[in-house]
Structure prediction request, 482 residues.
Amino acid sequence: MIVCVLLPRFELTVAAGDREELLRTPAALAPSGPTTRDARVGEASPTAEAFGVRAGTPLGEALARCPSLTLVPPDPAGVADRWERLLVRLESIGAAVEPERPGLACFAARGLLRLHGGSLERVLTAARHALRQPARLGVGPSRFCALAAASRARVRRPVVVAGGEAEAAAYLAALPIALLCGRHETAGLSEPLERLGIATLGGLAALPRAAVADRFGAQGLLAYELARGRDGELAPRQPPERLVEELELPEALSGVQLDRALHLLVDRLLARRERRGRTLRTVVLSAVLVEGGTWRERVPFREALADPQRMRLALGQRLALLPAPAERLLLAVERFGPPASDQRSLLEEAAAVRRSRLREAVRQARAAAGPDAALRVLAVEAQSRVPERRVVLTPFE
Amino acid sequence: MSGPAGRTHRLAQPRRAQVESDPADGRPCTVGGRAVDTVRESWLIEDRWWNGSPVRRRYWEIVTTCGRNVVVFHDLRGGGWFVQR
Prediction:
C-alpha cells in the first residue's frame, strides 16, 4: 500500500509565513521571474480560486478577474528548506520517501507495519505526529490512487482505498479528471479532456486504449493507465547530507562587497569538517531579500571541485542575477563529488582524454537531470530467441 | 531499485495487448482495436524448457490497416496476447 502525504498550497503557505490572514483573503504567489507579458501567478488561496484564479493563470487575467488580489512574493529558499525538514521528519519514522513536488510525497507502508505495531492506522498516526503540522493522508494500491484519496481526505480523517488494481480503478472512476493535474506528466491533459466532454477518470478509463494513444500519445497512455488504477513503482530518494553556511549582511551590499561575502561563504563551506576532503558537485546559492521573499539558484559545477577560486568564479556569475538587495546569503551543498585527487598522467593520450571528457559529461548530466540521465544498452544474451532477454539498460559506468 | 549502481531495465519487455484472433488458426484479426491488414510472418519459440520457467510463444508479425508494423505473440502456456515492438 502506498501512503500519500498532501499539504495543499504548501508554497503559498510558506511564502505567507506568519501572515495567516492572507490565506483567508484573495491571494496568489507572484510570478517568480521578471514580469513579462506571459507572467503567470503561482498557487492561489481558496478565496482567490472562488474568483477563478488558479496556479498558472496569466497575471493580467488574474488581476482582471479579482482586482483585490494580493500578490505574495515567492519564497523558493524557504519552501526548499521547510520541505526538506518535513521529508527528514517522515524519513525519521523509517519511511523511504519519494517527493513528487513541494507539498506532495509518497512512501510505501508495507515495510513500516511491523515497525509501528502492525496496523496501517498506527503508521498513519506516526506519520502525522512526525510531520507536526496538518496534512492530508491518503492510502491506495498505487501512487495516483493514494494521491486521489489524499485529495479527498480531511486533516484528521485519512481516506484508505483497500484492495488492488480493480478496487483502485473503481474508486477513481467517479473522481474528476482534474486530478490528473496532481502529476506533472499528465497536468496538461485535464483541460483538453474536459473540453472533449470527459469529466471523470472513469470516462477516460472507458475509452479505447488505441484512441487515447492516437490522440494524446505517451502522455495520454500514462493518464489512461493511472485512471485504470495502474502506476509506476515508487522511486524513493537517497536522504541527502545537509551542509549549509550562512552570512548575515549588515546592509544592502553590492558589487565588490557582495563578492567578498561570497568569498567568505565559500571558504567557510570548504573548511567544514563534515566535507571530509570531498569535492562539491552541486551547490545551492540562496538569499533572503530585503524587500521580502527569497531567491534561490541551483549551481551544478562543470566538474566536481574543491578549489575556492573556481567555485567563486562560477557562483559570482549567478550572484549577479540577484533580483534585489539581500539581507542574508546562504550556500548549501546539494551533492558531493569524489574526494579531491585529480591526478593526471604524464602523457595524455587522445583516446583517454576523450573517455575522461565523456565520463565527465555523463557526471554533469546526472548532476543536472538525475541518475537515469545517462544509460547504455548492454547486450547480455544477444543470441537469445526471447527478445526481452537480449539487452538491458544499465548505468553508463 | 537502489542507487544508480543497482539500476537495470530490460528492453523490449512484452506489454499486454488487446488482440482478437481467428479461432480456426489462431491468426490475429485485430490488434488494439485496429484490423490486421497483412500477416508478414509467424514463428514459434520454445525456450527454457530445461528450467522451471519455460517459454512457449507463437509470434506474429503483422501490419495493421493504419500501416503500423507490430509484433505480437500468444503465450501458449499462460495464455494472453502481448505486443513486443
